[in-house]
Specification:
The protein is of the alpha/beta class and 247 residues long. It is 32% helix and 23% strand. The model has no long low-confidence stretch (mean pLDDT 95). Pfam families: CbiJ.
Length: 247
C-alpha cells in the first residue's frame, strides 16, 4: 500500500493554512505541535502534541506513521526542529519540503539595526530606552537584566519568569493593525522596537508603525538552517505535494 500521509511540523499560522487547504483537498494530514502554547489554534485534520524525542524519535515516527512527505512549516527561528527534520528525513529517505515566508526587508524611511541574537539586541539599546519587545516569551532575560531600560514585552502566553518593575507584560495574539500599533507605541512613549525577522503579514504592522513614527528598530536576523527544498507560496507547495503523492 503506497504511503499517502503528510506530516506538517506546525505551530504557525502558515502551518494551519497549509493543513486547512490540504485537508479540504482530501489529503491525509497530521500536524505536529510542540506543545509550548497552552491554547493553540488548531488546524484541520489530525493533530499530535509534544516533541518527538530528537532525531531518533522523529525517524521512528516517520516509519511507524508511514509518512510520505514532511512539510516543515515551523517558525523561521525554530532552527533546532528544522535541523532535526533534515537529519531524520535524510536517514529515512522521506522527502522534506520547507515552507518559509520571506523575511522582512528594510524600506525607505526605516531605521534598522540588524543583530544576531537577543543578547546582542539588548546590548545595543541605549540607556533610558523605552522598548516595545516582540521577541516572544523565551528571549526575555537579556532585556530584563538591564535596569536602565524599560518597556512592554508582548507575547501570546505568560512568560516563564516574572518581569521586573520596569517592564509590563502585554498578552495579545496577532494579527495587529497599523493604527493599533501606532497607538501602542505613542501611548507608551516607546523609543525602540525590538523584534525577530519572522516575516509574514500578521505581525508586520509594527514595522509600518515604527516607520511612520520614526522609531528605530533592532531586528534579530534569522538563524542559519540546514539546506532543504524550500517554497514560500501555497501553489508551489501544492505542486510538490502532487508530485510526491502522484508521481
Amino acid at each position: 500500500m503506497p504511503r499517502d500521509r503528510l506530516l506538517i511540523l506546525g505551530g504557525t499560522r502558515d502551518a494551519r493554512e497549509i493543513a486547512d487547504v490540504l485537508v479540504a483537498s482530501g489529503r491525509n494530514v497530521v500536524t505536529s505541535l510542540a506543545g509550548v502554547t497552552a491554547q493553540p489554534l488548531l488546524p484541520a485534520g489530525e493533530v499530535r502534541v509534544g516533541g518527538f524525542g530528537g532525531v531518533a524519535g522523529l525517524k521512528s515516527y516517520l516509519e511507524t506513521a508511514q509518512i510520505a512527505l514532511v512539510i516543515d512549516a515551523t517558525h523561521p527561528f525554530a532552527a533546532r526542529m528544522s535541523a532535526q527534520a533534515v537529519a531524520a528525513c535524510d536517514d529515512c529517505r522521506v522527502p522534506l519540503l520547507r515552507f518559509e515566508r520571506p523575511p522582512w526587508t528594510a524600506r525607505a524611511g526605516d531605521d534598522w539595526r540588524i543583530v544576531d541574537s537577543a543578547t546582542q539586541a539588548a546590548s545595543v539599546l541605549p540607556r533610558g530606552a523605552r522598548v516595545l519587545l516582540t521577541t516572544g516569551r523565551k528571549d526575555l532575560d537579556p532585556f530584563f537584566a538591564r535596569s536602565d531600560i524599560s518597556g512592554i514585552a508582548r507575547m501570546i502566553e505568560e512568560p516563564p519568569l516574572n518581569p521586573p518593575s520596569n517592564w509590563k507584560i502585554l498578552r495579545e495574539r496577532p494579527p495587529f493593525t497599523v493604527p493599533d500599533e501606532m497607538a501602542l507605541i505613542s501611548d507608551n512613549a516607546i523609543t525602540h522596537l525590538v523584534t525577530k525577522n519572522a516575516g509574514g503579514r500578521a505581525t508586520e504592522a509594527k514595522l509600518h508603525a515604527a516607520r511612520e513614527l520614526r522609531i528605530p528598530v533592532v531586528m534579530i536576523a534569522r538563524p542559519v538552517k540546514p539546506d532543504a527544498p524550500c517554497v514560500a507560496a501555497m501553489d508551489n507547495l501544492l505542486a510538490v505535494v502532487e508530485g510526491v503523492l502522484c508521481p
